[in-house]
């Protein structure tokens, strides 16, 4: 091929001329850099390679990290995991070899990415998120993504989403909003975990989390400040009441003092709030995780106590009454998983009272069929969204649409095994979720999400809207 034929084939003369003319029109101070950038934009982005590795999450347990390459750069993502896996959620693929990481290694998932998914995606346009996700689903061929592993598929899906945003030269949250058809971005109200109990701690408090929601803040930046100040005042309260040794924190950063009852935990949280003067601007949320202490049709509130009295073995109706009393005595605005995941009867009964937001986590497992049933039966009025239970960005967008169409609230959630990936922060803003649950205002893997929300709010400037008092739809 002659030089002229080569130039003609790639239309180089015209492309170079266009780039030079654009630099002149822009009167750029660095024309060489401008021309280089202009030429790069003229070439459509395609996926050239996907490379995965095994890393450790915040608990020291293996998880999947992906580097997705296009002809314009490299884009990284890592995925979280929970401490339990429900039968209705997408399958997290682990090796199962007890001799390596106690059976928790993810080298099979990594191999699936490097040897199967990468080959299937090479040449695809990273802006076409639905097609990328569908290609992986078609390759997997199982309902719950068990062949390739939801942890493998999700890591690639998130990395591709970042590559798509870069190709469009828009922030990640804007790209996700485009994928979902939304036009307004909303900074979510954070539900900060401040006290941990249940299976997440060694104390005797039966419920899993007590959270604070700064609904009265004017901006996310102020909400983060309020959460941090209350958190530090709570540390002081715990030190005064129980001693400095009781200020240890759980996996998601909540304090784990030696308390035995929900009311005891709520009381010290209220005292910390009172010391800040934020009383009327803070709501409280609790994550009961009732499935963890449901035995048959009864609920054992002393399931962690070495000296059981037998007085705290409750029926479903007893639990309804307990929640009524708690909502009456404390500024509780949200209760997550108040009943066992299969106790639809009492979930419906409690939700019908309209006392607070009723969030479905174990009840729903982010599963479209479970969500559809809960909508039909009015078993809850808010979705706890865990992206690793779904497995792709596209499917995540769709389940949020389901919840929104039912006028539900949406809480974008972390997992106990987290990484420094901040994707869920952009996701919460993009989908207008109104709420995010990412742990305490401490620990790096939790703050990665909250600090990203600070950056997004700063970037949006005058257009930034904090959900505040409009943190959830009226139900």
UniProtKB/TrEMBL annotation:
Mg(2+) is required for catalysis and for stabilizing the dimer. One of its GO terms (cellular component) is phosphopyruvate hydratase complex. Residues 47-176 form the Enolase N-terminal domain. Mg(2+) binds at residues 287, 336, 361. GO terms for molecular function: magnesium ion binding; phosphopyruvate hydratase activity. Its cofactor is Mg(2+). Pathway: Carbohydrate degradation; glycolysis; pyruvate from D-glyceraldehyde 3-phosphate: step 4/5. PANTHER family: CYTOSOLIC ENOLASE 3, ENOLASE. NCBIfam families: eno. This is phosphopyruvate hydratase. It comes from Durio zibethinus (Durian).
């Amino acid at each position: 091929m002659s030089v002229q034929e080569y130039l003609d084939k790639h239309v180089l003369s015209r492309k170079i001329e266009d780039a030079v003319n654009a630099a002149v029109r822009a009167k750029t101070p660095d024309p060489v850099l401008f021309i280089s950038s202009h030429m790069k934009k003229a070439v459509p982005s395609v996926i050239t390679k996907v490379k995965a590795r095994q890393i450790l999450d915040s608990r020291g347990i293996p998880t999947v990290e992906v580097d997705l390459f296009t002809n314009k750069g490299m884009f990284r993502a890592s995925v979280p995991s929970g401490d339990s896996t429900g039968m209705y959620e997408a399958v997290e693929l682990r090796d199962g070899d007890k001799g390596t990481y106690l059976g928790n290694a993810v080298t099979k998932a990594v191999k699936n990415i490097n040897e199967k998914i990468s080959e299937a995606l090479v040449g695809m346009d990273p802006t076409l998120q639905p097609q990328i996700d569908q290609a992986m689903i078609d390759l997997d061929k199982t309902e719950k993504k068990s062949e390739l592993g939801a942890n493998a598929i999700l890591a690639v899906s998130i990395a591709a989403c970042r590559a798509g945003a870069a190709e469009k030269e828009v922030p990640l949250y804007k790209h996700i909003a485009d994928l979902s058809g939304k036009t307004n971005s909303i900074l979510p109200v954070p539900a900060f975990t401040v006290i941990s109990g249940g299976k997440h701690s060694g104390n005797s408090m039966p419920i899993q989390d007590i959270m604070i929601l700064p609904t009265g803040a004017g901006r996310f930046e102020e909400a983060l400040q309020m959460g941090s100040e209350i958190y530090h005042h709570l540390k002081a309260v715990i030190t005064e009441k129980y001693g400095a040794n009781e200020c240890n924190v759980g996996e998601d950063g909540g304090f784990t003092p030696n308390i035995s009852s929900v009311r005891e935990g709520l009381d010290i949280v209220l005292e910390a709030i009172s010391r800040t003067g934020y009383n009327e601007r803070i709501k409280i949320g609790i994550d009961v995780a009732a499935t963890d202490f449901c035995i048959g049709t009864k609920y054992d509130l002393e399931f962690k106590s070495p000296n059981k009295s037998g007085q705290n073995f409750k029926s479903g109706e007893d639990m309804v009454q307990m929640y009524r009393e708690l909502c009456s005595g404390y500024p509780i605005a949200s209760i997550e998983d108040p009943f066992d995941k299969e106790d639809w009867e009492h979930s419906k009964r409690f939700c019908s009272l309209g006392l607070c937001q009723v969030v479905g986590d174990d009840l729903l497992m982010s599963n479209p069929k479970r969500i559809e049933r809960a909508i039909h039966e009015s078993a809850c009025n808010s979705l706890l969204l865990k992206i690793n239970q779904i497995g792709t960005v596209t499917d995540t967008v769709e389940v949020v649409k389901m919840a929104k169409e039912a006028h539900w609230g949406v809480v974008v959630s972390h997992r106990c095994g987290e990484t420094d990936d901040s994707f869920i922060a952009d996701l919460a803003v993009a989908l207008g979720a109104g709420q995010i649950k990412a742990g305490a205002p401490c620990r790096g893997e939790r703050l990665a999400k909250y600090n990203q929300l600070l950056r997004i709010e700063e970037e949006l400037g005058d257009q930034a809207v904090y959900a505040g008092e409009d943190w959830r739809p009226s139900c």
